[in-house]
Amino acid sequence: MAFLVLNRVKTQDIFVSNNYTMTTQAISLFNVLQSEGKVVIHSFNNLEVVKFDDILYVKAYGCYAKVFMKGRDPITSSRSFGEICRLLSSYQLFQCHKSFAVNVSHVIRYKSVGKIVLENNIELPLARRRKEDFLAILEID
To answer: What is the pLDDT of residues 112-129, one digit of tens each?
Structure first.
């Protein structure tokens, strides 16, 4: 995750983590956002700060990803689906299909025909090879 840093920084304040160069100021901001359950999603013109709980699911769109949320329009991210999944992997995001990842806290039903039902009766596909892991997650919750 990259942050814009407005202040000029000294070389000793910079270190590399997960292939991103971040200052101590940026790391502090990242930690605050994460502690509040918020994530930063890169759209084409903006950095969108959203609560993870508001994310319903993520869908791959070629080189981009679309983040579907409750109560607002989806955000088309300039990042790839894989990058979004890695970004949100510490939260309850489960990749249920090659093109879909679901926020497990919004699942209301699993249909034995390989469909996951979310709030508002949104249906997402569940890959056969991911079914066992998904059902195990539901048992834990």
So the answer is: 899 999 998 999 999 999
pTM over 0.70: yes
d(CA 2, CA 131): 34
* Cβ-Cβ contacts under 8 Å for 100 (sequence gap 6 or more): 57, 58, 59, 60, 124, 125
| Residue 36 tokens, joined | 């509040």
Rounded to 10 degrees, what is the CA torsion of 116, 119, 120, 126? -10
Domains of the chain: 1-36 (no CATH), 37-140 (2.40.50.1020)
Q: Are 106 and 92 in contact (CB under 8 A)?
A: no
For residues 53 and 37, what is the distance between their CA atoms, to the nearest angstrom?
Answer: 8
Read off the pLDDT of residues 22-55 as tens digits, 9 standing for 90 and up.
Answer: 577 766 776 777 778 888 888 888 888 899 999 9
